[in-house]
Amino acid sequence: ISGHELKRYLLKRIWRPMPLVRDQACAKIENHLSKQLGRNSVDDFIAFSVRRGDKARENFVFPTLDRYIIAAERAAILHFPADDKMPTIFVATDDCSVMNDFRSRRPRWNFVSECDVPHHQSKDGFRIEEMTLWNHEATDAHFGKFMVELYAMAAAKYFIGVIYTNVTWWA
Length: 171
Known about the structure:
The protein is an alpha/beta fold. The chain contains six helices and four strands, in the order ααβαβαβαβα. The protein has helices at about 5-15, 20-35, 65-80, 95-105, 135-155, 165-170, and strands at about 45-50, 90-95, 110-115, 160. A four-stranded parallel β-sheet has the order 3-2-1-4, sandwiched between helices.
């Protein structure tokens, strides 16, 4: 997307979270991507941003998951021509049910996400009114996931996603 390099620069040079937050988020991303060590460098992956949750009540028409897949196939040809396989895809999402859908549509692709961490497995997406029910640990887990997704989207070589989510605006 246009301006993606600028956002990456801003995240690296100007906006600076506490070192502990940054280091934890980056370590989690490395852990996700290490599943493909030897095939991809840390910069050679695609990031998806998929938003569902309370946006459904706002009558959003969500892009189909097939649109993400088609866009990734095109990106692989144009931006990863030396790879003989599809690059790893990091999925930032509030609705972890999309992971099974992506994996069933493309079982040979490597999709990774914070959704693979058990305590982040929201089945129907983020709903702002539920935040009042969260304890301190749940709030920290939510924002920790946010930071991992933010850094992953900014660090990706190629980004495919929606613009109606706070995570995407920051990345």
